[in-house]
Amino acid sequence: MTDGSFLVTCAGNHDLALDANSWFINYNRFFITTSDGLEVHQRQPSALQQPPYTSEQARAALTNATAYLCDTSVTIPFNGPTNGGGDGSGGGSGGSSAKKGGVAIYGSPYQPEHQSWAFNLKRGAECAKKWSQIPTDGSVDILMTHGPAIGHGDQMRADNGGGRAGCVDLYKTITTAMQRAPPVHCFGHVHEGYGVTTNGTTVYMNASTLGSKGMNPPIVFDFPLPAIQSPVTVVPVTVTATSAASPKPKS
């Protein structure tokens, strides 16, 4: 990262240590701690153990991030970041770029239940309740969630169950509950759904780094300043012959 760069991140279903609600269970599914303190991957530990560190301690280790978002927001103004609870400790709706002279980002690590991983929610009421925390006053410029909304970057491979893994309630929140749909929705989770789509109002970016055929190139985009009435621009990236094609918006 160069001077003037800001790193905004949120967790996902593989970030086991960051989910306080499931960390004990998942630690004992995947790890044991040896006498010398070494964590060893193991799916069936012989005895339950307390994790060597808490989820709060794991979050505190993210010292190089401008903001870690967990159902919280941060505004990146043109002269530096202001935190709307962006450290994961509280709320705050941030503000739209037009109102605060910056870009307001809201992030959540949750997705509809997928196996027994972190940040799982049951489809329906649990998901709807979680997405109701997203500010609906039009203040969100970029929405960042781990999982996709239904219909955008959520198509599963046939050998991975097929169908669409996106959340219906998240899509409803974006398209009907929010006074102004966010211009950009960034997410991942469905690795094979990598790429960019749009419904003409929101640009949906599945930025999964790991694809079915190796690493995907990063998706780079320009977010327009308030005074510039132009759409979000996806910047083509240079890829190797073995990488996926450069993402381009499509209907």
Features of this protein?
14% helix, alpha/beta, Purple Acid Phosphatase, chain A, domain 2, globular, 251 residues, disordered C terminus, two-stranded parallel sheet, 7-stranded mixed β-sheet
Percent helix range: 10-25%
Structural class: alpha/beta
> What fraction strand?
15-25%
The largest beta-sheet arranges its strands as 6-5-7-10-11-13-12
| Count of helix runs | 5
Give the SSE map.
Elements: E1 8-9, H1 23-30, E2 31-33, E3 39-41, H2 55-60, E4 67-68, E5 72-77, E6 82-84, H3 97-100, E7 102-108, E8 111-112, E9 120-121, H4 125-131, E10 142-145, H5 168-177, E11 184-187, E12 195-198, E13 203-206, E14 210-211, E15 214-215, E16 220-222, E17 233-235
Parallel strand pairs: 1-4, 7-10, 8-9, 10-11, 11-13
Antiparallel strand pairs: 2-3, 5-6, 5-7, 12-13, 14-15, 16-17
